[in-house]
Amino acid sequence: MDSSELYHIKQQFVLGAYKTIVSLALPEPNSPTYTPTLLYQARAHVALNDPKSALQVLPADSDNVAVKAATSLAKYVSASQSADKDAVDAALEELRDLAVEIEGDDPEGSEAEKALVRVLAGTAFARAGEVEEALETLGVDTEDLEAVAVIVHIYLSINRPDLARKQFERSKRWAEDDLLLQLIESTIGLATGKDGYSNTSSFYTEQLGNPSLTSPHILTARGVTRILRNEIPEAKSDLDEALTQQEGDVETLAALVVAGGLGAMKKHETEELWTRFVSRHPDHPLVLDVSKKESLFDEYAAKFVVPPSVA
Question: Are 46 and 58 in contact (CB under 8 A)?
Answer without folding.
Answer: no
